[in-house]
Design a protein that fits this description.
By secondary structure, the chain is α+β, with helices and mostly antiparallel strands. The chain has four helices and twelve strands; from the N terminus they run βαββαββββααβββββ. Helix 1 links the parallel strand 1 and strand 2. Helix 2 crosses helix 3. The longest helix is centred in the middle third of the chain and has 21 residues. It has two domains: 168 residues, BirA Bifunctional Protein, domain 2 (2-Layer Sandwich); 48 residues, SH3 type barrels.
Length: 231
Amino acid sequence: MATPPIFVHLQTVSSTQDEARSRLLDAPVLVTAARQTAGRGRGGSVWETADRAIAASVAFRPPWPEAAWPLVPAVAGLAALDVLGDGCLLKWPNDVILGGSKVAGILVESSGAVVVAGIGVNLWWPTPIPGAGAICPDDPGPERGRRLAEDWARLLLERIEAGPEDWGRDEYLARSATVGSAVTWEPDGAGRAVGIGPLGGLIVQTARGTVVLDSGIVRLVRTEGAGSASG
């Protein structure tokens, strides 16, 4: 059984990613906050905060070979679907969408033997920015976000404890909003997403053959017909 995380709930923090990393000793540490003053997304992009949101980061030392660590973002995404509901899908590499709008984002960073997995969830947003949405039609209050974050962290750590051999690739494919769609990526890539590789990369069929996109290298992937981009 996975070691349960230590919970640290804060109202405001500069970055839950940095706070979780700084507090990690032996047991995993989950830090949540209703507001971040210096929150970030993948590649350093700024995370736009909904009227009611939760930011959460769990720092831990994975019992996996380091070569398997690129799977952690996909596993974190599956754990997010476990708690956010059946209507949500994963947009590769790090977005959770509901009804075509982004409602959550995943960020995974590593340093030495430590991995910090973060999630930001829009709980309620009466007037969201274009391409964004929220999971609740009405303000659920502060407790909903904290419970959601705790459940997500527990499920993520349980999936990590189970090992990388059967990380949930078929499950990911069944809940992917990207596989089967035409995609483009910077600077001039284009093709059709046809699968997920053994380490979580996006397999794309292009005019020149098949390529596997690495989320650590590719900055933006746009799905045909979608107005927002994964950041």
